[in-house]
Amino acid sequence: MKNDWLVVFLLAGIIALYGCQPASQDTREVQKELKVAVAGPFTGNAAAFGEMIQRGTELKAKEINAAGGINGMKLTLIFEDDTGKGKEAINVATRIANNRQILAVVGHFNSTCSLAGKTIYQRTGIVALSPGSTNVSVCEGSDWAFRNLYRDDFQGKFIAKYIKNVLKELQSVAVLYDNDDYGKGLADAFTAEAEAIGLTLVASEAYDRDNTDFKAQLTSIKAKNPDGIFISGLYGQAGLIAKQAREAGITARFFGGDGIDSPDFLTIAGDAAEGTYLTTPFLFGAGGEEAGKVAEAFKADYGVAPDTWAALSYDAVGMIAESIENTYNESATFSENRKAIRDYLASLDTPGEGYKGITGLTYFDKNGDTVNKPAYVKIVENGAFTTAPLQMLSPE
Question: Would 5 be classed as within a structural domain?
Fold first, then answer.
């Protein structure tokens, strides 16, 4: 009887000893996992952008982990859907900021969402690096906000000068803009520059993000008979505007900002997209050999070519990973590691210190803005985006 109890006691000890080992190992694995959030519009009327953002970030994380991770630690991306709406972005930002395992944020995409989350990230001390928000105010007033593309004051000025100096036959322009932070900010910048350089503005009409019927705005614009229509908004509404404009007999040439830079614009607009000009922060054809390799890998994984937003998101993950690699301290608190990432990004303030990615050299001014990135021009020909034959690498 005594021996039976001894056997039971020994078995219990063995089970306790070896049963604890997997749990301990799991804990160590968690400690070796570095988490970065990716916040974007994965559903909603900007979901086509979100899909490219997700794929671009996934590809970069996959490459980093295949090469050994970050100092031997696995990079894990946590995707958070803000639906492209400011209200949901507040919820997403709060959730991310309160998760002590998340070191930094790639996002948001929509300017409204970046602005909505900015105060939360600033208050809690976590970096948000946007690969898509272009509103002038996105980085201003926060030590924790960065972006790796141009601002709308640059983009709006560029578009106006391109119309005036490159497409010289166009003299009058109407503006149709999405009445949100991105659409209005870009339209304001375009309008100010157009007036300054002598383009004739014949109309300015606003619409809401959820609009699908633009007949009232287009009727007003048609009466002014402009040579061109600048659509300041996202691809979904822009596609409908182009289609409805042609159905209404409007023959003006269409122009757009980078919010139209999505294959879904072509699908929605159909034949009406033909001849549309738009600006974009990046062209794979201008990115050199490394960009070409990334494009090939992207297409191999996803069966489609990457776009501008996939490229900028790919680079954003690369910048965050480099920051973690150079600063992460396993003995530090999560707040200390978050701040070290911020300080590292802020130190990239000259061309010599900048991050070399597939979208070019990225470095920041005192606000966290990237001031050196150019704009490029695409045109829709034969139902596809192609590089416009005439570029203007400086808006001056």
Answer: no
Same domain, residue pair 163 and 129: no
Q: Let me know whether 236 and 315 are in one domain.
A: no
Q: Are residues 264 and 158 in the same domain?
A: yes
Mind giving me the DSSP string for 161-215?
HIIIIISTT--EEEEEEESSHHHHHHHHHHHHHHHHHTPEEEEEEEE-TT----H
| pLDDT, tens digit (0-9, with 9 covering 90-100), for 286-326 | 888 999 999 999 999 999 999 999 999 999 999 999 999 99
> What pTM did the predictor assign?
0.88
pLDDT of residue 10: 39
The residue-averaged pLDDT of 52-62 equals: 98
Give the model confidence (pLDDT) of 227-248 as tens digits.
999 999 999 999 999 999 999 9
Q: What secondary structure letter does DSSP report for 73?
A: B
Q: What are phi and psi of 300, to 5 degrees?
A: -65, -35
Domain containing 162 equals: 153-280+377-387
**β strands within 239-320, DSSP E:** 253-256, 277-280
CATH, residue 167? 3.40.50.2300
Please list the residues that pair with 38 across neighbouring strands. 79, 106
CA dihedral 80, 81, 85, 86 (to 10 degrees): -10
213 & 293 share domain:
no
Please calculate the CA angle 75-81-84 and round it to the nearest 5 degrees.
130
Do the domain assignments include residue 340? yes
Whether 11 is in a domain gets the answer no
Q: How far apart are alpha carbons 311 and 146 in whole angstroms?
A: 17
How many domains in the chain?
2
